[in-house]
Amino acid sequence: MLRRLITNDLRSNKLISVSTVIFMAVTAMLLGLSVFLFGTLYSSIDSLMKKAETPHFLQMHTGDLQKEKIIDFAKTRSDIEEMQICNFLNLENGQIKIGDRSFDSNMQDNGLFCQSDKFDFLLDADDNIISVSPGNVYVPVAYKNEYDIKVGDRMCIGTEQLNVAGFMRDSQMNSMMASSKRFLVNESDYDRLRSLGSEEYLIEFRLKNGSDIGSFSTAYKDAGLPSNGPTITYPLIKLMNALSDGIMIIVILLVSFVVLYISVMCIRYMILTQLEKDRREVGMLKAVGISRKDIRRLYISKYLLLSVIGCILGVILAGVIAVPLGRNMKALYGEADNPVLIHVLMILGAVISEVVILFSVSHILRKSEKISAVEALRGREGKGRRRNLWIPISVITAAAVFMMMVPDCMRKTLSEPDFVRYMGIGNSQIRIDVRQSDDIGSSTDLLSERIRKDPRVDKFSVMRTGSYKTTLPNGESYNIMLENGDHSAFPVNYIEGTYPGNEDEIAFSILNSEETGLKVGDKITVSRNEGGNIEQRECIICGIYSDITNGGKTAKGCIEDDTPSMWSVMYVTLKDGVSPEEWITEYGSGSQESIKIAMISEYMNGMYGQTIRNIGNASLMTKGVACLVIVVVILLLLRLVIWKERRESSLKKALGLMASQIRMDYLKKLIFYLLAGLILGIISGLILGQRLAGGLLGMMGAKGLKFTMDPVSTFLIVPVLILASAIAAAVISLREIRNIRAYECLNTRE
Fold first, then answer.
1. Sign of the four-CA dihedral 345, 350, 351, 355
2. Global pTM value
3. DSSP string covering 518-559
4. Minimal CA–CA distance to 480: which of 512, 514, 436?
5. For the purposes of burial, counting CB atoms within 10 Å of the CB of 127, is it exposed (0-12), middle (13-18) or buried (19 or more)?
6. pLDDT, tens digit, 9 for 90 and up, residues 522-578
7. Which of 134, 153, 610, 677 could form a disulfide with 398 if both were Cys (CB 3.0 to 4.6 A apart)?
């Protein structure tokens, strides 16, 4: 009997049944998709780093190597499993050309590399260790689509040529957020091309399981070993690999929670619609002795069946959509290590969304049990207050607008020049990097002196980054990368306090502050190099700033001492009327290959271009889901409103009003509540959305984020999509008005 009742109910309420399945499927799809992409990203990165045997500690160094000193240090450390020193040949980007695409505007440090002997292997598309033949080169997979490179293209380095034999995965430098990219060549070609670039060393260590990377890093610094370049650790490499696709996935996860909320609300009103229609039948069942528990079981069984169908459809859709969204992830990191477990977790995520919906269904049905058999047979709801069914339309519209706005605002915010301040970078017009030089200090001095005398320059600042040993208030040693210079010219975003103004002040990045427990006003002892003598100087923490560069663990100061620079950065803003393109061309021509000059917008696009494109893809998917949600919501809730107000509509017809006039009244009221929902959604998107996105980026060190609203999307595209979807659905729902007869108002029972 139960099966027959459910079958008949589904046949007689096709719209509600199909709509319920749609909501359940979309919710299961988004939550399952988020879990699937997260699991795939984490597993793929972890698998790649294991297969490539990524170093736990990497010190990039330019200049005198002191190889024997490094080997002696390694012999004294019981936590070292393996070590190696690799050569990296830095090339001037203007020399590089693949096919017909030049690398002159590329902001990465590109160079040639030979396959490692012990660890840090470069892998092909099948995750095999690559063996390169003479005359061939393997290109970083990150450049494949960006420069439209194909196997068989010619790579030109000056007058020399190499054949592109394939693409490689580099567990260290896959992400565009890594500042360097390696091209894999044969040793004979490396020796042949050595004169075309400047050589740098990668001093790499693999540590034993359970070793403390932070303690090892401190010991390396204390030993006075070569450190003229960035220091990179295993956790930092993993973070840089995950950032680009990770932001897109969290946006999808945020959207999935919004859709879950909408689904619960809509299914609630679908059940109310169903109970409104079934009130007499429920009364008859109660009158003949069917228990409340059995009646609830009837409805739960129906929604359980619908949720199973919705869950299956959602999982299938998630698998289909994951293919284009995960294409870049698969290209960069390869296949996940445990696909079966990831698919199980995806199904589990979809099931959890259905459990939440079924729990809400059960809660609503318990409330319906309070109606007595007599009240149900008479068609009355009981003593509860009459609900305003227009308000849910506004609330769900607001949720849909919020869902559309957040990805758009995230994309716009990341695209804005001012976003660099949240990265720990000065918001200038032009950025100049001096890296991988035998004498970074001299190169910086010569260029900075030339720029200072340039009358076309409006504002200019030089930042020199060095590695400093500090002592925390508790006596613990702590190494920091300290950027020294005039921080007032191009200040970054400070969460607390302000930039350092003298040598006794120092500012910490958020992640450094959280790791050390230091706040504004606390003191720290910095070891300074004064003519070869190490002096201790007490500095006060004057500010905490947002930063996601170099793993988010940096510091800023005004110290002038003899500590060697790991790299230098110059920020330049030109006077009005001066062409930045011509200025860059002038300073770029004849510059050393270690000096890279670019517009700050180009620098940002190089680092975050892929992330912005990923969020754009998620935004398109979100808009489609939001439009589908609005269509289904209006179809259902407007039907429910018409059902509840059927007697009033009948009376209007009896008084001589045409069906078209009644429809127009409904449409005007609908537009009013849609506009209210649009306004509420925009406000919530700017306030709540900003907090949620800020919390996401704050985990990476970029706190205090202010959304940059996309006015075209917010005030044109989103409203047009919402109104068009709603009005299209309303036209369909309002056809029900013509089925209402004028004599129905004479019936005293609702």
1. positive
2. 0.77
3. --TT-EEEEEEEETTEEEEEEEEEEEEE---GGGG--EEE--
4. 512
5. middle
6. 999 999 888 778 889 999 999 999 887 766 778 999 998 888 887 889 999 999 999
7. 677
